[in-house]
């Protein structure tokens, strides 16, 4: 039979699930929400200030994710999006997600319990340095 195993070769997620659920319970849903929400807002405002752009939407629209406008004046192309994302991944070891909406480029930031503000500062600096390059030469 071809392709008879559709599962994972890494079972660590399954083995760590009970401890993860216990940890989440010990913190409480309200504290997790507050941490992630505040981190998403802080990160978005930091990166928007760093890039001299703005956050898409209002703070009340932010749950754990926020979107920050990017200072890219190029028309959208999947090729350019891919090149920017790959450059950041190869040069900085960070996976960032860009997207295009209403003729503007954005980055989507996702706050998680295992992240801290320093992670977003690093992402912002990597993004700023990348966008200062000639994007057509990436």
From TrEMBL:
This is PLP-dependent transferase. SUPFAM superfamilies: PLP-dependent transferases. Keywords: Pyridoxal phosphate. It comes from Conidiobolus coronatus (strain ATCC 28846 / CBS 209.66 / NRRL 28638). InterPro entries: PyrdxlP-dep_Trfase.
